[in-house]
Fold:
Amino acid sequence: MAEGSDRSRLVALVLCGVLGFFGAHRFYSGKVGTGILQLLTFGGLGVWWLYDLVLISSGGFRDVDGRRIIFWTEDESLHRPMGPGDRGELTAEILDEIDGLRAEVMELTERVDFTERLLTKQRKSDEFS
Structure:
């Protein structure tokens, strides 16, 4: 049987995607210390969060015991090892998910830039009033 964690990769990925800035995926994987650090630094100002998101997606994220979180469901970790053919099937799915996340991040970046420009414009008009 492949060395893998009994924790679900899908749960870790969802937690990281939704609450990653607060370290929820690290608490789930048993890494309470680094989970608290992520909570205090808002996911390392987004960099640490994004790094973890890529690690979880690629199957390289490890739990507190050092076992890779590779199985998409907890049942899968109990019943079958990951075979060489599984990697190709998951790769396309992971790439699609990453592309979707990239599009969302770009949209959020544009919104933040627009908001910053509005705030700067407002401050300048307040200064001259």
